[in-house]
């Protein structure tokens, strides 16, 4: 073990729901308490906080709780904290925490992501929608062209795979079908009913070739990860999971200009920082805001060649719970709910600790990958149980 090693020592998650009445700050505190209880740490041990994207009122409920909200609510005494949009996607908050620990600025950093979009959009008096008639920031390059949703941005890359590499809807469907099958085994998942291929094929198109079941859905929840320095990680009562490697990248936010999404550069970069290879990975928890994101991560990380992800997942057997590369074993965002990136790291730790219950993968998993984003922004974590 190196003094530079960083570990995930505690994980926690609130209830996941749609239009929850419980305040988002209380959901966050629920997740904090679970992470502390699991790790055996106390609130006084936490000397850092990292979150994505910080408090943001637009769109409604997207990020209602920031670092300072949690510091004030729990009367925390921290030496370092971080929160902002301009990082390499959601799990970039974990990357920032690892950097702070390696720099000696903190020993135990509480990382969190709280979403309240389902409740926020249903209660406009409490969470006002953005003012109409003006496109600001990055959206000024998208909304005038009708590209209102990330579904529009991702669909163009999916359509290239359809036209250039022969991707079929039946192949793409395996992501959603697998997510929903795994979500049915997760007691916290938002949607626990399995999905059939017929149901998928008959669903309405959102933005060709992405249909309704290719998209995640708004939910209300909070997820917490505690990241710790190596010399204190062994003091926790649960199994610490080492962050064996990290990679990240940022491309232009313009929706129609980049040739490849950021998952490709990030995937290639990850293997430069470790002796592990794709063959060593026991499970992948890959960002699926839209099902096609998963295909770009599989290709970018080198599990298959560019353009071959459709064939790689065809039939769903390879990515099933008992397959050679179990995918999104908690249900992903399509099945378990839009936890906005943090759910993937939470599940990777759960699997490596052997605590998945009915959804626990076979054997003795020791290496996992968790990702977030993958469009203009991307982050990948390689996690290992030593």
Q: What is the element string, with H for helices and E for strands?
A: EHEHEHEHHHHEEEHEHEHHHHEE
Q: Could you name the ranges where pLDDT drops below 50 across 5 or more consecutive residues?
A: none
CATH superfamily placement of the largest domain: Thiolase/Chalcone synthase
Top CATH class of the largest domain: Alpha Beta
Our count of helices gives 13
* Rg from alpha-carbon coordinates: 19 Å
Shape: globular
Structural class category? alpha/beta
Quick take:
This protein folds into two domains: 6-123 and 218-233, Thiolase/Chalcone synthase (Peroxisomal Thiolase, Chain A, domain 1), CATH 3.40.47.10; 147-216 and 244-384, 3-Layer(aba) Sandwich (Peroxisomal Thiolase, Chain A, domain 1).
Write up what this structure looks like:
With 386 residues, the chain is of the alpha/beta class. The chain folds into two domains: 6-123 and 218-233, Thiolase/Chalcone synthase (Peroxisomal Thiolase, Chain A, domain 1, 3-Layer(aba) Sandwich); 147-216 and 244-384, Thiolase/Chalcone synthase (Peroxisomal Thiolase, Chain A, domain 1, 3-Layer(aba) Sandwich), CATH 3.40.47. It is 31% helix and 18% strand. The chain is built from 13 helices and eleven strands. The protein has a nine-stranded mixed beta sheet with strand order 3-2-4-7-1-8-11-10-9. A two-stranded antiparallel sheet has the order 5-6. Strand 5 (205-207) and strand 6 form a beta hairpin. Helix 6 (169-183) crosses helix 10 (291-300) and helix 9 packs parallel to helix 10 (291-300). It is globular, with a radius of gyration of 19 Å. The chain starts with 5 loop residues before the first strand and ends with a strand. It comes from Sphingobium tyrosinilyticum. Its EC number is 2.3.1.-. InterPro entries: Thiolase (IPR002155), Thiolase-like (IPR016039), Thiolase_C_2 (IPR055140). One of its GO terms (molecular function) is acyltransferase activity.
């Amino acid at each position: 073990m190196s003094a530079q090693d960083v570990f995930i020592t505690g994980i926690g998650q609130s209830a996941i729901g749609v239009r929850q009445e419980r305040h988002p700050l209380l959901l966050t505190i629920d997740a904090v308490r679970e992470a502390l209880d699991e790790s055996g740490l106390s609130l006084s041990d936490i000397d850092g906080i990292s979150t994505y994207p910080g408090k943001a009122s637009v769109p409604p409920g997207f990020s209602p709780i920031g670092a300072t909200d949690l510091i004030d609510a729990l009367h925390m005494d921290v030496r370092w904290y971080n929160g902002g949009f301009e990082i390499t996607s959601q799990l970039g908050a974990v990357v920032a925490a690892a950097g702070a620990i390696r720099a000696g600025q903190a020993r135990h950093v509480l990382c969190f992501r709280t979403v309240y979009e389902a409740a926020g959009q249903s209660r406009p008096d409490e969470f006002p929608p953005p003012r109409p008639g003006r496109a600001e920031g990055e959206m000024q390059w998208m909304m005038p062209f009708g590209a209102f949703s990330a579904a529009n941005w991702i669909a163009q890359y999916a359509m290239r795979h359809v036209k250039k590499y022969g991707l079929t809807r039946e192949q793409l469907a395996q992501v959603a079908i697998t997510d929903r099958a795994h979500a049915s085994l997760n007691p916290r998942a938002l949607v626990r009913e399995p999905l059939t291929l017929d149901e998928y094929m008959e669903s309405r198109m959102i933005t060709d070739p992405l249909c309704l079941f290719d998209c995640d859905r708004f939910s209300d929840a909070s997820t917490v990860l505690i990241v710790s320095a190596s010399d204190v990680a062994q003091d926790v009562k649960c199994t610490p999971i080492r962050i064996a490697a990290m990679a990240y990248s940022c491309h232009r936010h313009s929706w129609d200009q980049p040739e490849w999404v950021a998952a490709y550069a990030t995937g290639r970069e990850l293997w430069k920082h470790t002796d592990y290879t794709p063959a060593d990975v026991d499970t992948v928890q890959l960002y699926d805001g839209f099902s096609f994101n998963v295909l770009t991560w599989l290709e970018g990380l080198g599990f298959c060649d560019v353009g071959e992800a459709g064939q790689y997942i065809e039939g769903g057997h390879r990515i099933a719970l008992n397959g050679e590369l179990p995918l999104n074993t908690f249900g992903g965002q399509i099945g378990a709910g839009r936890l906005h990136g943090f759910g993937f790291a939470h599940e990777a730790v759960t699997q490596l600790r052997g605590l998945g219950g009915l959804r626990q993968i076979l054997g003795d998993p020791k290496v996992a990958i968790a990702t977030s984003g993958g469009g203009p922004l991307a982050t990948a974590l390689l996690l290992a149980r030593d």
